[in-house]
Write a structure and sequence with these properties.
It comes from Sporolactobacillus mangiferae. The chain starts with a helix and ends with a helix. Helix 6 runs antiparallel to helix 7. With 260 residues, it is an alpha/beta fold.
Length: 260
């Protein structure tokens, strides 16, 4: 009887051990199948085309090529960026109409087709034209008329870029106010006009994904003496550096979303 009792206990213990081992094996197998191992980010090869006006050309900091040059340097230092190439077609004085003409040039078309990233600054000269044409008798309706023309040109420009390249991510800069120290009391009337202009441009851009509207007005607000070039219109090196750092954050954010 005693021998039979010992055998029974041994059998029970062995059965329990087998069940425990089986349970552990299944748990390890399940965890192995369902636990995702963090993937190493794919190295980025950024092929950048920069379009637009004097800000993209870098007027005010030509030595460093403005925000385009500074952004390129920052990106080359980023861990997950393997290479950066840049073709800069920015030109001083260009309006939205000039941008449309540039998008008809073969060199620009081919560059956009071969890119995966587009930088864009446009609209500042359209806005300045209102001041030049109506300076002595300036009304809000003057800006409204110009904005309608600009909006139509912006839609055409973004449509053309998307036709040439449906996938390149566009980073489109909003406008800042370089006139706050010159307008005096009138500045409080101009700020809502600028804000409406930027909001409208941002709203238009949403239809041309993938695209990021990059605000700049807050960067320069109350700091134009510190951040503008001697012409008190274009950014200086410090101003462009702020723009570049913000742009890099937008680029990093867009790439992080792609990896998810």
């Amino acid at each position: 009887m005693r021998c039979r009792s010992i055998k029974k206990r041994v059998f029970i213990i062995l059965s329990a051990v087998i069940v425990l081992i089986g349970t552990l094996f299944l748990a390890i197998f399940y965890l192995g199948e369902h636990t995702s191992v963090p993937k190493k980010p794919k190295p980025l090869h950024l092929k950048i085309v920069a379009l637009g006006d004097s800000l993209t050309e870098g007027i005010g900091d030509l030595e460093n090529q403005g925000y385009v040059g500074t952004t390129s340097k920052l990106l080359r230092k980023a861990k997950n960026v393997k290479s950066v190439s840049v073709k800069d077609f920015g030109h001083r004085g260009d309006t939205s109409k000039d941008l449309l003409n540039k998008l008809n040039q073969s060199e620009v078309k081919n560059a956009i087709k071969g890119s995966n990233t587009v930088f864009l600054t446009i609209g500042g000269n359209d806005l300045v034209r209102v001041f030049k044409q109506h300076f002595l008798d300036l009304h809000e309706s003057d800006f409204t008329r110009e904005q309608k023309l600009f909006s139509a040109n912006l839609k055409k420009a973004l449509t053309e870029i998307r036709k040439l390249n449906p996938d390149a991510h566009i980073y489109y800069f909003g406008l800042y106010n370089p006139f706050e120290d010159y307008l005096g009391e009138a500045n409080k009337d101009f700020v809502p006009i600028l804000n409406h202009w930027n909001a409208n441009s941002s709203r238009i851009s949403e239809s041309f994904s993938p695209i990021s509207f990059v605000p700049t007005s807050d960067l320069f607000r109350g700091k134009t003496n510190e951040l503008l070039y001697t012409d008190h219109f274009h950014p200086n090196k410090k101003g462009y550096t702020l723009m570049a750092h913000r742009l890099v954050r937008f680029i990093e954010s867009a790439n992080n979303r792609k990896r998810k």
